[in-house]
Specification:
This protein is α+β, with helices and mostly antiparallel strands and about 190 residues long. The chain contains three helices and 14 strands.
């Protein structure tokens, strides 16, 4: 069994900022990754509705990190479990667990990848097209090559190398469209 992914809205970071928001599906798992800042909530809600998905059906929300441009619209999903680098949250239950290796489904797992922040998490998705990695280690295909907010450049480079060593078919960056990594992908 494999999962599928759908970019609900593609992010950007220029004079305005929006995160890339993605839907992952596998069996009963319906997960939204980084439901943060967007120009209009319809950019998240309308693509879900077009797929026949009601917000109450979303089982999981994953935060790559806790900046508002990746978390602001989390409350749109009232029945979801919320995942970050250290725990799963639902209603008034806080369950500590390491993110590294945590599986939401057989084909959707989390991996700690500190870099943009010390608490970054990447989502690994096995699809029919190959491995897709949703991550904020890259803002977009064309940069910035050196993340201006990374607190530790060596840590960022190490996490990027860790992701690229997995041989992903696609990377879904924090503020851009999915791209196929190549020799020109910044490390």
């Amino acid at each position: 069994m494999t999962a599928s992914f759908h970019v609900l809205t593609t992010g950007y970071a220029h004079d305005r900022v929006a995160g890339t928001v993605t839907l992952l599906t596998e069996g009963d798992t319906l997960a939204v990754v980084d439901p943060g800042m967007v120009a209009d909530r319809g950019l998240i809600l309308d693509p879900l509705a077009e797929r026949g998905i009601d917000v109450r059906q979303i089982t999981d929300v994953i935060f790559s990190h806790h900046h508002p441009d990746h978390t602001l619209n989390a409350a749109l999903f009232p029945r979801a479990r919320f995942h970050d680098h250290m725990a799963v949250y639902r209603d008034d239950i806080w369950e500590d667990r390491p993110a590294d290796g945590f599986a939401l489904s057989p084909s959707i797992t989390l991996m700690t990848t500190p870099g943009h922040t010390a608490e970054d998490v990447s989502t690994l998705v096995s699809t029919d097209q190959g491995l897709v990695v949703l991550t904020h280690l890259w803002w977009g295909e064309h940069g910035p090559a050196d993340d201006p907010f990374a607190p530790d450049r060596a840590q960022l480079r190490s996490s990027r190398e860790k992701v690229l060593a997995l041989g992903p078919t696609l990377i879904v960056p924090g503020h851009g469209a999915p791209f196929a990594p190549s020799g020109a992908t910044p490390v």
